[in-house]
Amino acid sequence: MPRGDAAATPAKACDIIVRNAYVVTMDPKRRVFARGAIAIGGRTILAVGSEREIVAGYRAARTFDAGGGVVHPGLIDAHVHIVHGTCRGIFANTLNSASQPVSFADWKADVTPEDEHVATQLAGIEMLRHGYTCFIEPGTAFDGDAVAEAAVSLGIRGLLSGPYIWDDIGPMRHLGGLDSQSLYGRVPANLDRCLKDMGRELHRNRDDDALVRGYVGVYGLGTASDRLLAEAKALADRERVAFHQHEGYLPGATKADRDRIGKSRIRHLADLGVLGPNATLIHMYVLGEDDIAPIAETGTSVVWCPVAFFTLGIMGQTTLRFPAMHQLGVNLALGVDGAVDATIGESGTAAFFVSACTREPFGPETILEMQTINAARAAGLAERIGSLEPGKRADLVIRSTAAAESYPAVNPIHQLVLTSRGGSVDTVIVDGRVVMRGGHSTRLDELAVLAAARASVQRRMARLGLRPTTVWPVVE
Ligand SMILES: [Zn+2]
Description:
This protein is α/β, with parallel strands linked by helices. It folds into 2 domains: 12-73 and 389-441, Urease, subunit C, domain 1; 75-94 and 111-175 and 184-378, TIM Barrel. Helices cover 33% and strands 20% of the residues. It has 17 helices and 18 strands. Strands 1, 2, 3, 4, 5, 15, 16, 17 and 18 form a 9-stranded mixed sheet that branches. A hairpin with a 2-residue loop joins strand 17 (433-437) and strand 18. Zinc ion (ZN) binds next to loops.
């Protein structure tokens, strides 16, 4: 077919064109192309624009017709304990599990590399199915290679840090089922061990194309000495990676910490100089009014995990400061966290809770920023992912127009954020590669993963003498 006259620019070759799409770019102007297209070459986005412009400018080896459906940047879960999703049905409430013979933290301590591998594959399938293309694991997986290998086998992007970086587990006694002698036996609270382990995953960053990368995390909640905090922040600065920790989780623990150090933990972190543009604080449900200024002034990011928040039963005991932080320009991202009785990848449920908690100022557009571009900044990967722009890695999701959840389809972004779940995810591309098609992995036999996950959990329950609790008589 002729491509115009001799004066026209010849079409450039590329690998993939996604056309006939409602493209939500999340670029700095937040442009949306109602009839848009994207050209991808190798791992990278080459061009985003109107379909007319892209189709005239590029010739692709493979073309995806989105049928008018929404195409958006892959979502990023800024905080998910990816190997813990397999506790569902065993621990309905992780904090209350302290009263049981085997607590949730005992369960965490017993995990093997094989268990972590299959738990990551199960979680990865669920995340891709819900439009997530990247996750940040908060340093609670023991075998980084097992987790990384599982993520790569599915084609999902991930960030890992060394396991349980803590050198003072005293504050853990305020955290119920997260307190466990068997866990401290496996990851002792000592500075030397932490200094050795905290950079353990950073070697992955030597490969600039690595799908799974390293960053620096400490457990937080008062479990790191000032020296450990300073060393961890310095390592993150040197390596130009993100630095994460949990804070502001429970009223009792936060108060005990304040009583112990004589000021708020957030003020203490600011005084130590360990906040800043590469620092991220996770949870942050329990904060004083005066904690907000140091976060905003230092450019620190905050990750809100609304699904986890509702499992804590602390509503009414705390005033959520997220609207105030947003108003002061704090970079807010979203995480699913432990997802004890939730699906890993619950973007829609998380968005619903954010909206229901606060309504203003967190409309659907703001929530989508928290799940994409803001989360990319918290990951330290803002230059690379989080939006559909030329030069960024090609991580994107094509939503189906055949899913009931997307209708009446008169306000695509509202429905994408608040009413869509996994039912509308058709095709997922990560790093320029098609990893999900028709809502299923192109890489792995999903049924085999599901069976292996069940077998892994049955073995773990047998090792620990755990049985699922059921109220009704089950007749065999
Ligand atoms: Zn967490």
